[in-house]
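User: I'm preparing a small set of examples for a lab meeting where we compare how different chains pack in three dimensions. I only have the primary sequence for this one, and I'd like the structure in token form so I can line it up with the others. Please keep the answer compact; I'll paste it straight into my notes.
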Amino acid sequence: MSAVARSSRRLKTVEKGTLKTLSEKVQQLLNKQLNTEFHSAYTYLSLAAYFEDLDLNGFAHWMKIQYQEELLHADKIYTFINNRDARVILEPLAAPRAEWASPLEAFKSALANEQVLSQKIYEVVDEALQERDHATHAFMQWFVNEQVEEEAIVRDIVSDIERVIESKDGLFLMDRDLAGRTPQVGQESPA
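Assistant: Understood. Below is the structure token output for the 191-residue chain.
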């Protein structure tokens, strides 16, 4: 019996007015999002390694913090799935891309990664709304807001790199600025 079949047996019918467990569709989408967050973390770790190879340690530091944040996001989803009496299903991770032509291309790749995350989050939100799963919808709002911020930050860094790409001094100053990034505090979501 597959993990999905076993987990669908856990889906329960409960009395009106009590928190129901996840539908099979929402459970599948949340598990897909969980695995997407893990792949995103893996991608950011690969980007960090790329920047370390270029001796751009500030850029690498920034990517390592992104890696850690994606792991926190995955953990939030993991906890939520379990709190809803559903089954977490982990999938194998594909190897992330490891080479980029330039720091600019690497950050454009990071932006594309954030845009994929946003789209997947919206799929979960849309299904939760359609099913009137208020708990999942409320939980996912933290991720919606987080993605607005994440995309804006990465888009700003892409713009900054585009302005200084021809200047080694400009890239050095950006590297120094990115080295000063600290992990966000209070990334709590209503799990």
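A couple of notes for your slides: Residues 5-17, 187-191 have pLDDT under 50 and may be disordered. The chain is about 70% helix and 0% strand.

User: Perfect, thanks.
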